[in-house]
Amino acid sequence: MNAEKRIRRVVVAGGGTAGWMTAAALSKLLGKNLDICLVESESIGTVGVGEATIPTLQLFHQLLGIDEREVMAYTNATFKLGIAFENWKDVDHSYIHSFGTAGKDCWACNFSHFWVKGLRNGISHDIGDYCLEHFASRQGRFQVAPRQERNHAYHLDATLYAKYLRELAEKYGAMRIEGKIEDVQLDHHNGHIKALKLDSGKLLEGDLFIDCSGFRGLLIDKALHTGYEDWGHWLPCDRAVAVQTGKAAKPMPYTRSIARESGWQWRIPLQSRSGNGLVFCSHYMDDNDARKQLLGNIEGEPINEPRVIPFRTGTRRQHWNKNCIAVGLSSGFIEPLESTSIHLIQRSIIRLLTVFPSNGIFQVDINEFNRMVRDETENVRDFVILHYKLTDRQDSEFWRYCRGMDIPDSLAHRMEMFEKSGRVYKYGEELFGETSWLQVMLGQGLMPRTYHPIVDMMSDEELSRFLASIRNYVRQKVDSWPDHMEFINRYCKAN
Ligand code: FAD
User: Fold this and answer.
1) Is the whole-model pTM more than 0.90?
2) What is the overall mean pLDDT for the chain?
3) Among positive and negative, which fits the CA dihedral 211, 216, 217, 222?
4) Domain extents for the chain?
5) Where does the record locate the signal sequence feature (predicted)?
6) If 52 and its partner were Cys, which of 292, 339, 394, 400 is the partner (CB 3.0–4.6 Å)?
7) What is the number of the ligand 1 atom nearest to the C-alpha of 198?
8) What are the residues facing 259 on neighbouring strands?
């Protein structure tokens, strides 16, 4: 396919986090030569969740010239240094997947090989004791690191974040239209989208359409029938119930993920309130029981009605099809265990900006875009499956299913390599690198059988001094940091 036509009119369908992130980035970075129009419907609203992020969001903010202090104050944000996984390996066991790196790597292997030998010698402590971000999470302390070393993310109010981005997008010239999309009109010549018909009767014509309509996938699926690959057999949770409570007594700089009988519960502390939700599998638990379980496990009183959100884990067969690119929930969904959706939105936007088809839409660009999105999404998928598969829990049908389920070959390969050699690799542009795989594999109880021979070049005494020096450094450094909320009150107190 070769559609050589200058692309000038960009229509963004939907104004949730995905829609406004897209409109803000396009208008700020390429807006001079584009007409950008976003249509959204207040009566339909947004999914209204999506409050935990990962550190890559800082890159997006840098690109858009967004000031961290300003956006944090606007969105009632707190800092996030990682995720605490409670009851995942087993009931009453917990570990943290932090955004930092444990210890110091050497040219031949990473720090975990030294740590594993130390464990055998009885001198290693929790792996998190050797990582600043991990230790700071547990202590509830925070300090902004020098720019190059920043490994923090945010907990933020998703509705306010979309509002903030809307202001930015409109400032850079994006136009917003309130209306309900009733029909998607196709060009019968090449199957491209020609226009969106709104409930007012207005026709919104465009050259390129960005589908940010959420789970509905109005353009990419309802109109273009792109199809969906279901990953429910690997990630069986398919619903969530969400509710907000008041401000936490002591908002910690990490997200809590607490495994429950048929799923898991999140707790996300904002400056103004807390977000809570239970992600569960409808095959093992119904909505009523899920609601009861969630309300029985929150701190304080709910401040809104609990809301059930059904979802289907998987991915679009193509993320870019003809003149339509799906961004956000319309492109697929991997449940929120590792807070990766906003990151995947950001990646799709940056890819679109780098290959922007101003001189026409070429199949070769479409194929490359789809390949990159696919690779990255599969990496995230495998990483999330790992948490479910590597469990010792056998106390419910749900966990027995997860323990026994088949997994993708790509994940089986990583697990086997780690168990046999202690090695983990990051391939290409994958999001999760060695340090993330390590923390979760160890945290879920997969221990390497051996370590790299270079470790034995150190005497036991040297190893002991090496481990102790890192641990002491981490303690001293974190002890000098302020309390998380004390820091926020000085740095980015909500308006
Ligand atoms: P939506 O928010 O659903 O927005 C869709 C937009 O399309 C709305 O503006 C709507 O009005 C518009 N629209 C739809 N139909 C029409 C129509 N006919 N006419 C006009 N407009 C229309 N992500 C994270 O990164 N971190 C998290 O912690 C996290 N937690 C999550 C928890 C749950 C339970 C779920 C389900 C998701 C979570 N996510 C999380 C994902 C995150 O919420 C989404 O990626 C993000 O909100 C983007 O959503 P969206 O903009 O694609 O869709």
Assistant:
1) yes
2) 96
3) negative
4) 2-51+157-230+313-379, 88-142+396-479, 239-310
5) none
6) 339
7) 19
8) 264
ipTM associated with this complex: 0.99
117 and 463 Cβ atoms separated by less than 8 Å: yes
**Ligand 1 pocket, residues with Cβ under 6 angstroms:** 14-19, 39-41, 44-47, 49-53, 158, 180-181, 212-214, 216, 218, 240, 242, 277, 309, 311, 328-330, 336, 339, 341-342, 345
Residue 3 reports pLDDT greater than 80: no
Q: What distance in Å separates the CA atoms of residue 109 and residue 454, rounded to the nearest whole number?
A: 8
Measured in whole angstroms, the distance separating CA 426 from the mean position of its chain's CA atoms is 18
Class of the 2-51+157-230+313-379 domain? alpha beta
**Residue 259 reports pLDDT greater than 50:** yes
Distance CA 333, CA 344 (A): 10
Tokens describing residue 186:
């196709």
CA distance 420 to 156: 40
Task: Tell me which of 3.90.79, 2.60.40, 3.90.1690, 3.30.70 is the CATH number of domain 239-310.
Answer: 3.30.70
**Residue 193: how many CA atoms within 13 Å on its side-chain side?**
33
Contact 281, 262 (CB under 8 A): yes
Rounded CA gap, 79 and 115, in Å? 28
What span, in angstroms and rounded, lies between the C-alpha atoms of 447 and 444?
9
Question: pLDDT value at position 1?
Answer: 46
